[in-house]
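Below is how a single chain appears once it has passed through the pipeline. First comes the sequence as given, then the structure the pipeline wrote out for it. We keep one example in the README because the format questions we get most often are answered faster by looking than by reading.
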Amino acid sequence: MNSATTIRVRKHRESLRAAGLRPVQLWLPDSRSKSFRKRCELECSMLATDPNEAEVLDWIERVAYLDGWRADEG
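Resulting structure:
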């Protein structure tokens, strides 16, 4: 048995596929977990003492294409 919602979702997905799109499923780390937080803290502390970090961040800022992404750009 198909409910109205199931039919509506199927039609929506069919229209997306007809437009050349396809579904993708992503599995990401659970950012709410304690282990994720601890890992972030560890990596941040490692970067804070890395002598190359400032140079790398400066380079990223120079080469990044940010047109339209900055809040201060009207």
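The chain is about 55% helix and 0% strand.

See the next section for the split statistics.
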